Amino acid sequence: MEALGASSVPSFHIRTTLDKTKLRKPMFLNFHFNQIPSLTFSLFHRKQLKFKVFYTISSTVSTEPTNPPEPVFETHGQGEKFDWYSQWCPVMPICDLDKRRPHAKKVIGLDVVVWWDRNEETWKVFDDGCPHRLAPLSDGRIDQWGRLQCAYHGWCFNGSGNCKFIPQAPPNGPKVHAAKKACVAVYPSTVQNNIVWFWPNSDPRYKDILVEKKPPYIPEIDDPSFTNLMGNRDIPYGYEVLIENLIDPAHVPYAHYGADREGGTPIEFMIEKLDVNGFNIVQFQEWSRCTFIAPYLVYASLKPEDQANGSESSAGTRKDTSVQKEFFLIFFFCIPVSPGSSRLIWSFPRNYGHWINKVVPRWIFHIEQNLVIDSDLYLLHIEEHKIMDVGPANWQKACFVPTKSDALVIGFRKWLNKYAGGQVDWRGKYSGVLPPTPPREQLLNRYGSHVVNCTNCNAAYKGFNVLEVVSE
Questions:
Q1: Which residues, at least 6 apart from 171, have a Cβ–Cβ distance to it below 8 Å?
Q2: DSSP track, 161-204
Q3: How much is the pTM?
Q4: I want to staple 188 with a disulfide (CB 3.0 to 4.6 A). Which of 157, 199, 311, 441 is the partner?
């Protein structure tokens, strides 16, 4: 993982002559920029970098060598089970949501609409189906009174899901809009760490669930001493493969954009405290740690090599206040969308180099970050189809994982099998068949998977198109 150092920031060189063909919709954000800092998605140290990864989970670390991990999974028993529908689910960063219109999103198989209720000044998450004829409310609009209006017949709903107006109903007739069946299902929602979250159960008994249970909180994202880079991308492979890829350091020297093809090396890992809530990860050589908070969050922290034995971040324990410590943190929110589809939200808070984000547009950083995602996207899409062919339950038989660098993937599969039913609980909505594989170019089309869902990249795309039209 490369980080941006405040004292040694590379210079930026942006091409001033643009190839018009690269401004077309399917190819947007494929420009190459020289020496833009690479915020690669690996959680782990690469040999050629000047930084070590140091993860900040407070626990006792054993330095005794361990035997190679054995890919043996515990069978489903009568112990504690993970409930996918009793967790707060991340939806989208608020920086990529437009308050002027509703947004269609799918999370854990649920079609929801996210919209800004200006009357209550909060983001709302509804079922994306009008109770009239089930038309998607996400194709509607916010009317002049701040209500969500269906585009099909104009039915209007307030922030509580109550229907406030049916244009086809006579004004002096029965108040059919007040009927219970005219209401739209509302999911409990909240904004935390600049991300909209929702509780995937619209039963009224969960209306105040936020009082009892909150989403995982990351203080550094809200800390004004940290600057933050955030983004999102829809991924054409499933949640399970996404998690595995993010916690697998061994592929980085070979699969990623700009990687060292000869950079592979043995890596020792150990899984700590694996239970229904997730697990901690220890890397012996680098004294680095990260954690998986089930089911959506993988996080870690990065700091310079000479501070590897110094203080720890707020997620850890001790601090040495005699020297200003620099931290680069990595947070991945991994969202199951549907079989063969997931969404990644990333956040990279750091407490140095604040000026960089003020002079470098967010969309430039997203070019580099998307290049990293693109590097192994096709491989992982095909891999998922092969796993589905043999059956997810046969993963440990089909895959040969003999080295300690595979410990994290094995640990995740163990958690998934032991506590979470071996796969995402789609509640019978899908047959288990993955979508067919489209052409590679379609899989790598960044416009539909990122640009339209990112306010900065979308604005840059439209701006470049205007420049192209003016220049012709």
A1: none
A2: S-EEE-TTS-TTS--GGGSGGGSPPEE-EEEETTEEEE-S---G
A3: 0.81
A4: 199
